[in-house]
Design goal:
single chain, about 450 residues, alpha+beta, 5 domains, two-stranded antiparallel ribbon, about 45% helix, binds 2-acetamido-2-deoxy-beta-D-glucopyranose, EC 5.3.4.1, protein disulfide-isomerase, calcium ion binding
């Protein structure tokens, strides 16, 4: 008993360590190979560069060394068409090509890829391209053979396996030209099957040929049909019924609104649609309706009246000149959809039920309120008051100064006679006292502003 326990324990340890080892290996393998997202973006970047290279070839096709290929240049440099000069002209602009952005390749992805394949491009230029300028493909040489970022077109996946035949353009090979994908055919609308050679449900084979185009059945058909018409359905779709017509049985839309009034509620309407129906709410102008909007009304809500032109209901203008609304003094009628409102005329405000003039002072106050606020907050920027104050202060100060000068002139003029000078000095003193208090007031007034 003890012995068998001893031999099972190591077995468990062995199994556990093997499991650990396996998970480790698979982890290393995973982190070693780039994920499919990365693979597909590398192929995208390389393909974008190859496309830009092709455009560069077209752009420089008629160029030369810049003065025609002279004999000297041809013997010393070769022709421009196969020269390093042209290669540089093209490669300089590969990642600046605006079309690269449209391929979903960012500028940094492009530059990273270009750095990787720059040497391969040069090898291609002096090798495959020089040997066969018309048919050599940069994508095949560099993106497929060189970096192995892509597969050749017609191949897919990590091993670049051949794509299935997707019925000559009726589907696309998933992963075509890349090292990712499923290798299955993604069929275009109307086609199905592994190679997109069958017609999908609700499509029929045109021309009756076994490989003819697949075209859509009438929407009236449930599944299969023999042609595009509603008379060619195998079965009718939901919301359609078989009706015998002159040219045979056809699938015809059922008018659910007529057959079973499915939209209940007093302010709703029913709209028949192909194969179905829709319930909608009446416009507020309607108390009953048969369709959307004001034109759909069959009866009008209060505040609305039957439309004078066309069908439906329109707003009643309660504010028409002969209306009895808002007739109080200084009242003004404002028409609203379905109702109206009585406002006061400009310059008047409501006091109880009456419109009364707005107080004049309060209107002035509101006009001045900004300045008052500014003054209170200690901001003396108010320009007109400051200007007025400056002028006033200057005038008052001139009077003050004039009185002193006047006294001095008088004193000089009546020199040596003390009585008039004393009287004049007293008068001047009185005036100066009065004037200084005026100056004080002007000054303080401004200070408070
Ligand atoms: C890519 O490599 C294969 C095999 O080495 C070769 O047959 C083929 O010609 C190469 N294609 C290009 C475009 O270089
Ligand atoms: C793969 O892509 C190429 C280039 O776009 C195209 O010519 C070819 O028909 C495609 N092949 C398949 C099987 O989708």
């Amino acid at each position: 008993d003890t012995r068998s326990q001893n031999s099972t324990m190591p077995l468990i340890y062995q199994l556990a360590s093997i499991g650990l080892l396996l998970s480790l290996i698979s982890h290393v393998a995973q982190s070693g190979s780039p994920d499919s997202q990365q693979l597909s973006s590398q192929c995208q970047a390389c393909s974008a560069i190859a496309a830009a290279f092709q455009r560069g070839l077209e752009r420089t096709a008629r160029d030369n060394f810049g003065g025609g290929n002279t004999n000297w240049e041809e013997t010393r440099l070769g022709t421009y068409a196969l020269s390093e000069t042209r290669l540089v002209d093209i490669t300089d602009r590969l990642c600046k090509d605006k079309d690269n952005e449209m391929d979903g390749v960012t500028s940094s992805e492009c530059h990273a890829m270009l750095e990787k394949i720059e040497e391969d491009i040069e090898k291609f230029w002096f090798g495959a391209f020089k040997a066969n300028p018309t048919s050599a493909s940069l994508r095949d040489s560099v993106c497929v053979n060189g970096t192995a970022a892509c597969c050749a077109y017609g191949r897919w996946g990590p091993e670049c396996a051949p794509c299935p035949d997707c019925s000559g353009g009726r589907g696309d090979c998933n992963g075509n030209g890349t090292r990712t994908g499923t290798g299955a055919c993604d069929c275009h609308p109307g086609y199905s099957g592994a190679q997109c050679s069958d017609c999908s449900a609700k499509y029929y084979r045109a021309n009756g040929e076994s490989n003819g185009e697949c075209k859509a059945c009438s929407p009236a058909c449930r599944s299969a049909c023999t042609g595009p018409l509603a008379t060619q359905c195998d079965q009718c779709a939901d919301g359609y019924e078989t009706v015998q017509q002159a040219d045979g049985a056809a699938c015809v839309d059922i008018d659910e609104c007529q057959t079973r009034s499915p939209c209940s509620g007093p302010r709703s309407f029913c709209e028949n649609l192909p194969g179905s129906y829709r319930c909608g709410d009446c416009d507020r102008a309607c108390s009953a309706c048969s369709g959307p909007g004001q034109v759909g009304c069959t009866a009008c809500s209060p505040g609305f009246e039957p439309a004078t032109t066309g069908s439906g209901c329109q707003d009643v203008n309660e504010c028409s000149p002969d209306s009895p609304h808002c007739t109080g003094p200084y009242e003004r009628c404002v028409n609203l959809p379905g109702s109206y409102r009585c406002d006061c005329q400009p310059g008047y405000q409501r006091s109880g039920s009456q419109c009364v003039p707005k107080p004049a002072a309060s209107s002035k106050k509101s006009a001045n309120s900004k300045q008052t606020k500014k003054g209170q907050s200690g901001n003396k920027k108010g320009k007109p008051p400051k200007l007025i104050w400056t002028v006033a202060y200057t005038i008052e100060f001139a009077k003050f100064f004039g009185a002193i000068v006047g006294l001095a002139v008088f004193a000089v003029a009546v020199k040596g006679r003390p009585a008039p000078v004393t009287v004049a000095a007293c008068l001047a003193g009185w005036y100066l006292c009065k004037q200084s208090s005026v100056l004080d007031r002007v000054y303080l007034h401004a200070g408070r502003r």
